[in-house]
Amino acid sequence: MPDLTAAAEAAARAAHDADKGRHAEVLVHDGPLRQSVIALRAGTSLGEHNSPPAASIQVLSGRVRVTGDDAVEVGAGRIEAITHHRHGVEALEDAVFLLTTVTGIEGRSSHA
User: Fold this and answer.
1) What pLDDT digit, counting tens, does each position of 38-92 carry?
2) How far is CA 90 from the centre of its chain?
3) Residue 35 to residues 2, 98, 105, 110: CA-CA distances in angstroms?
């Protein structure tokens, strides 16, 4: 399993050095589940996009605003479900977050 702390630190460094001020890396990809660490420099953003069937954002450091119909500010240590509406993410300060998405439901098991 990836070391989340190390991945977050590396992503923050990469975003700092990137022309567009952002960096993303998929850490876990298992069927429909994806977990990505994303870093944004203060003042940068991810433009509006459609939401997958299920998603959450867990801010590891800094503070972001999830824009859209249900805009919300999320600071370090907080986790929020992302609505099923178009949304974007703005960095209110240098930030790193874990984005968890479920892109579709494959065959479900009936195991309890």
Assistant:
1) 999 999 999 888 878 889 999 999 999 999 888 899 999 999 998 778 889 999 9
2) 11
3) 11, 7, 16, 24
Who's near 104: CB < 8 A, 6+ residues apart?
A: 32, 53
Per-domain boundaries in the chain = 4-102
The count of residues in the chain is: 112
pTM of the model: 0.88
DSSP per-residue codes, the chain: ---HHHHHHHHHHHHHHSTTSEEEEEEEEETTEEEEEEEE-TT-EEEEE---SEEEEEEEESEEEE-STT-EEEETT-EEEPPSS-EEEEESSSEEEEEEEE----------
CATH number of the domain located at residue range(s) 4-102 in this protein: 2.60.120.10
Contacting residues for 50 by C-beta, under 8 A, at least 6 apart: 86
Residues contacting residue 6 through CB under 8 Å, at least 6 positions apart: none
